[in-house]
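re the bet — no i am not wrong, look at it urself. input seq straight from the record:
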Amino acid sequence: MARAENKETAGPVARMVATVAKRMRMKEGLTQEQLGSLMGYTGAAISALETLAQPVSDDMMVQLETALGGGTGIFTEMRPLVRLEKLPEQFRNYVQIEQAARSLCLYASPNVHGLFQTEAYARAQIAGGYPTPTEERVEELVKARMDRKAIFDKKPLRLIELILDESALLRKFGSEEVMREQYRFLLECARRKNVTIQVLPLDVGLSGENAGARGELNLVETDEHTRLVYLEVQDESVLIADPVKVSTYAQRYAKIRAQALDPRASLGLIERLAGEGT
């Protein structure tokens, strides 16, 4: 059933990979068993790839380039597209917009924002979700999440602001060591010239106001200076372009930022959590 379902739901990139792989295999005069032997797979696995009975894995894309690429780089170039296609459908468009953004203003609650997660933290969070994903699916999603970090080094540098609800820092995933590594990575990110990190404290509501009470918020400015809002909850998401609505969310973000600890105090808090502060 799963194999029949995959044949029906496979996306255009997966279909292109299957077609190109089959044609290049036949051009080289290789049987499925012979190609499988070159790649470290069975002939049945190659058959499943070509017939779309099984989703192509990231490792298989690497091996296809080695065995059939012939220096063209064709499978290497399709590799990130395959990863993108495996993301939840409602998230794919946002990832492309995020990676092309001129600036990002992010409020993360209840977890550390995906862009700022370590690999170990991301793996623990994804693997612990429900319904429980397979190990292969976990690895696909972790790799896709790590790929998003490319935006930190894009030229010209993108302005990236992150406001973390303190609860996101206190919620533990994986182990104490995983969390220490995560805190240290946040400190490392904050040292970048184009990144600012602030923390919205748990007791902010004692002042009578908590602009972050409605959950996470992503404000994106495109290269065309268009502003968009992306919201996600319980595997459902919405991308908002209406200028009036975007303005309201931008004002809410500004209020969250005003209620957060300043960057120096925020980093001091993270340092203490990492065991580096006094």
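see?? The longest strand covers residues 159-165. told u. also Residues 5 and 64 are 24 Å apart (CA to CA). so pay up
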